[in-house]
Structure formats: C-alpha cells, structure tokens
Amino acid sequence: MKKRIYFSLIALGLFACLGPQEEKADNTKSSHFEKVKIKDNTITNLYDAFGKNRDGLIKDFGFSALVKYKGKLILFDSGTDAAILKNNVEALGIDLSMVDFAVGSHAHGDHINGFDYLLSINPDVRIYLPSDFFIGAPIHFNVAGKEKNIQDSLPTEMRYFDGEKLDFDLVQSGRFWNANITYVKENLTIEPGIQLIFTRSPFLGYCSKYPSATEMKAMSNDHEQTDNNDIKYAGMPELSLSLNTSEGEVLLVGCSHSSVQNIVQETRRISDKQIALLAGGFHMLPYGREELNQVARQLKNEFYVKQIAPTHCTGHLAFKILKDHYGPNYLFAGLGERLEFKK
C-alpha cells in the first residue's frame, strides 16, 4: 500500500512539473503572431507616419512595403526602427522570414534600419542596395594627395601601406556585416518582370572636399562652380522597383530624391510601357502649391501615370493636390493598407 501511495505521489509530482510547462508552451504559441497568406499582386504598407488607426500598428516616419508578385515576396525598404518594423509585421500577421529578397532604395536610415530585424530572422536573404560607399559598397580610392612624391620625404612608418600603394579598391564590411548584399550601379533585371531602376540625385549627395564660402555662394545663386573646381560631387544613388503587368508597370519608389519625374521617365525609357501605378514616397514636402500642381499635371498628362498611391515623404499639401488631380485614381496607401494590382 505504501509503495502504491509512493508511486502515486511521484506521478502527481511529474504531472505538477509538466503541467505548467505545457501551459507555458501554449501561452507562447498563442502570443506568437498569426501568419497570414499574402495575396499575389499586392503592395502592403508596413511602415509609415499616417494611416487609419489599426490595432497594434505603430506610426513612425519612415517607409517600408511588402510586395507579392508572381509568387515572390519582396521587402522594399524597412523603415527607421527595427523594433517598430517587427511590431508592425507581427500586428499584421506577416512573417518576414519568408521574404525572397529585399531592396533598399537609398542610404538614409528611415529606409534601411529595419533590415536589422529582417536579417535576425532571415539571415541569408539577398538585399539589393544602391552602390553607395556610405552603406558599404566598394569604392576606388586614392590617397596620394596634392603632392604625390611628398611621401618620399617621410619615414616608412608615416606612409600609407608603407608607401607600397596609393591607389587601391577600398572594400568594406558595410552597414550589414556578413549579410548577402548585392550593390547595384545600373538598371538591373532580377528576373523576368522584376526590374530595379537606378537613378542618381543631382542635388542631394556627397562631395570630396568641403566647398569654400565662395563656392557655396556660387552654388546657391547659379548652381555652378566658380572655384575649387577639383571638388568632386556625387549625387546620391537610388533604387526603385518596377513590376511588369498586363496594364503597364507598377512602380514603387522609396523617397524620390532623384525626383519622381526622373524615376518615371527612366522606367518608361527601359520598359517602353505606361506606368499603371506609381506608389511610395514622392519627396514633395519642400515644395509649394504652384510646383506641386505642375508635377501633378506632368505625371498625369505628360507621363500618363494612370494611378498613384503616395506615401511617406510626399507631404500633406501634395496629398491634397494629387488627390484633386487624380480623383478616383488616387489610392489611399497609409500604414497597414494593401493595394492590389492586375497581373
């Protein structure tokens, strides 16, 4: 009898130990976000500062969109804060570990910082970035300076690379160390129907030497160099995503620093098709009513962009003006919204 009670107590003890573990596992499972099936031919806004108030979503200034096209799941940009991107995709029931590849439009943090989260759950995913030194692209570099032979007057320990080389390719680990990065420096077809559009901003970029006061004044007045002609200006490179459909190209832009008009023109040049849908950030915050009306007319009447879905840095005034011009062909694309397009 004692032996039976002893074994009963052991069984109860095991049950007591296993019970909470099973309950904990159930709680963990139930708290994990539900994975939803993403419809083909859709764009979902994952990260933005405007939109309807949806449960669980956090608004923040930045941009990220999830594209489903021909069965491929594509993350375009990733927002400002990796934790907010994680929150939003979980709230929407989206699993970024299933992403086939990603695209970063340009080097600004409000478009690429969220890739840290993507890489934490999808470490081998390929990310396409513009070939920009400031996010890790290799660059040809020369350290000779203005007087190449001056190194001969220096002891070896004061010479770069012991004086053995002054001209070299600088290869860096990049913003995302050990990630599967492809740096893009021209238009690129990833696979049939999926094209990366490469443009470069003529206004926003980098220079090899700080301009003098005279130079800065000349640039602000005439947009031309007058002195310091050895300064090298490099416009910031930018990638946009173009998808071929039966109704024309679906064009997704990040911030349009190279101007949304230039991106549209380049897309039309290489595809020879109408832009069926233009979505993303148009970077129109700095512009006034007259300029915005001109751009709206140009997009609609000159470039024949059929539908638009502005997001991110487009701005309140531009939202209003573009909606007035496009009417029912203006698509609301705030945080959490999902746009559908034809195959």
Provide a descriptive summary of the structure in words.
The chain is of the alpha/beta class and 343 residues long. The chain has 2 domains: 42-136 and 172-340, 4-Layer Sandwich (Metallo-beta-lactamase, Chain A); 138-171, no CATH class. 29% of the residues lie in helices and 26% in strands. The protein has 8 helices and 15 strands. The chain has a 7-stranded mixed sheet. Strands 9-10-11-12-13-14 form a 6-stranded mixed sheet. A two-stranded antiparallel ribbon has the order 6-7. Strand 9 and strand 10 form a beta hairpin. Helix 2 (82-91) packs across helix 4 and helix 7 (289-302) runs parallel beside helix 8 (316-326). The longest helix is centred in the first third of the chain and has 30 residues, at 2-31.
Quick structural gist:
This protein has 343 residues and is an alpha/beta fold. 29% of the residues lie in helices and 26% in strands. The chain is globular and about 70 Å long.
